[in-house]
Write a structure and sequence with these properties.
The complex is a heterodimer of chains A (113) and B (116). Chain A is an all-beta fold. Chain A contains no helices and eleven strands. In chain A, the strands form two sheets. In chain A, strands 2, 4, 5, 9, 10 and 11 form a six-stranded mixed β-sheet that branches. Chain B has 116 residues and is mostly beta strands. The chains are: A mainly beta (113), B mainly beta (116).
Chain lengths: 113, 116
């Protein structure tokens, strides 16, 4: 059974510092991995999608890497801003389970001005 | 604007009173799904649908029903809600997958349900 873990559960950094968020998964036979942002009491906003054949994806200040063999993905957020404060979730899709996403528990990020 | 909408956004109800949470997407997506989010348990899939009239159970289907009569709509039905179904519910959609890769999933804004 696929398990997805995000460590740490919470992170606090001063504004301007780079953020590094980790995601690990137990079954390397994934089709893709998706990073989401969730603000308190709100829905999920998709940030980046990495296909299993890709090593990384970039969007603005965000960069996500994927290492299937080690079962890890890392989300980098450059030059953090207070507006980046949110919970970040990673989710993996296994081909054998249709389009089901298995989510990690999330990392709650606070960027202090 | 491409989006997934859910209604209602907030609902407080009593045990045993049937309710329906609607989900609609305007992106012509084949795949739709329901998740619930609970503290300490994260997001778990309830039901999913690969296309019209095709639905299947996710990880936590007990106490829920779904239907997919039209491509754009995927309602979640609680026939007899109980307090343990108090949760934050999300609907999601995406294009159907092709072997070896998958498409981005889009989530609705969530429905916060309280069952007393």
């Amino acid at each position: 059974k696929q398990e997805v873990t995000q460590i740490p559960a919470a992170l606090s950094v001063p504004e301007g510092e780079n953020l590094v968020l980790n995601c690990s998964f137990t079954d390397s036979a994934i089709y893709n991995l998706q990073w989401f942002r969730q603000d308190p009491g709100k829905g999920l906003t998709s940030l980046l999608l990495i296909q299993s054949s890709q090593r990384e994806q970039t969007s603005g200040r965000l960069n996500a890497s994927l290492d299937k063999s080690s079962g890890r993905s890392t989300l980098y957020i450059a030059a953090s801003q207070p507006g980046d404060s949110a919970t970040y979730l990673c989710a993996v899709r296994l081909g054998a389970a249709g389009n089901k996403l298995t989510f990690g528990g999330g990392t709650r990020v606070l960027v202090k001005p | 604007e491409a989006q997934v909408t859910q209604n209602p956004r907030y609902l407080i109800t009593v045990t045993g009173k049937k309710l329906t949470v609607t989900c609609s997407q305007n992106m012509n997506h084949e795949y739709m799904s329901w998740y619930r989010q609970d503290p300490g348990l994260g997001l778990r899939q309830i039901y999913y649908s690969m296309n019209v009239e095709v639905t299947d159970k996710g990880d936590v289907p007990e106490g829920y029903k779904v239907s997919r009569k039209e491509k754009r709509n995927f309602p979640l039905i609680l026939e007899s809600p109980s307090p343990n179904q108090t949760s934050l519910y999300f609907c999601a959609s995406s294009l159907s997958y092709i072997p070896g890769q998958g498409y981005e999933q889009y989530f609705g804004p969530g429905t916060r349900l309280t069952v007393t």
